[in-house]
Amino acid sequence: MASSETGxxxxxxxxxxxxxxxxxxxxxxxxxxxxxxxxxxLFGVMAFGQAVVLYFTHLSACGLELTGARxxxxxxxxxxxxxxxxxxxRTLVSAALAALLSASAIAxxxxxxxxxxxxxxxxxxxHGPSPKFALVGLSRPVPVALARTAGEAVYALLVLALVRxxxxxxxxxxAQALGDVLAVLLMLLALRRLGHALPLELDWPAVRPLFxxxxxxxxxxxxxxxxxNSDLLVLRAFRGAETVGWYSASYQLISFLINMAGxxxxxxxxxxxxxxxxxxxxxALYLDSLAQALCVCIPLAVGGALCASGLIxxxxxxxYEPSGLPLAVLVVSIPLMLYKDVAMVAMVVxxxxxxxxxxxxxAVLFNLVANLLVIPRYGMVGAAxxxxxxxxxxxxxxxxxxxxxxxxxxxxxxxxxxxxAALAMGAxxxxxxxxxxxxxxxxxxxxxxxxxxxxGAIIYALALAATxxxxxxxxxLPTLEV
Length: 482
Known about the structure:
The chain is mostly helical. The protein has 16 helices and 4 strands. 78% of the residues lie in helices and 2% in strands. The chain has a two-stranded antiparallel ribbon. A two-stranded antiparallel ribbon has the order 3-4.
């Protein structure tokens, strides 16, 4: 049963993550364009505006992305009874927050920062009214993927068409808002086509208990953002906007992987909710999902750390060379984030939202103190190191807590194949220098870092197959056996 469920999760994740991946890649390329066209200082202004608005983005969602998906996965009838009121309430919250954010930015920030933050406040209407959690709860990830891809494509096209000089910075948040709202409209249309009418109504007494149960998750998310944003704020205070731009560039490259980990944990929610805890089904599903996800994340961390400087130079250009070392440190945190995300989804499934909040409070306090002690002396590398240490703490606390829910630590015996294959890949990448490769019948050359990435992926797959962790069978897709 666990094996079939992990297959179902993998298919759901593939659909959800494919759209998220395409959307993230498109948004990432647009961000690279902005970084190259505007330079590190103005890119730092944009990153600061995004960091501020991100808090309000999660406030507008009211913590319902996980709990909402859980409720609908447990009872699909709640799409009709609760979803219209949830979306109406979150839309009103988004409008109030957008007005508050714009007024505060104009009152307290310099003119350029105020303009960027005010325009970014419009992106709240691409999150509060979003029915993404309902589609995930219904195990319908494809409409989410398509909507996300379409929204990010519109954003990227507008950025490429409008952003040329520093004066064009204000077009970036405007384009993002239009893309996000388009994605919401497409998801609402998908629900209607699935037969779920969504009348305009607000039955607050009916949805109030769900909002109340989700409030600890709102606080959890807001506090969790401090783990990243406090880095930016302390760097801005001690090192300036240019350093913030460099550090944001390194985070741009791993944000894709962070969101893939988030997409995986979200795709796990319906199956984990429906799995029985009393017969070991949930336990087996939890361990299988962790082992297979870490089998992908571990080589990404090893390879990403080794190729960090080359990736930065390729994507952002020589002016972002200082971003290489922070990226090498940050990418190592990806497996830790994945483990922590899966553990916290298990806690939400069990109704332990307050425990999730307590773990995050402990991590944030640690992170704030570490940042103030380390960043003034070590700058971006110190910021990356405190983020890595904080994610290790969150993973450890989450893994320890879910043991009380009958979900044990992942046995080391289920990681040795992935670890050994990653070690072989790392040794091959470190010891074998690879040149640029010219494409046949073309004047184009693949940069050495891309050749290295492809070489590393092949070595990892071969090493994993040699240990029995990757099964190759004629006429069938490869399967993980970890």
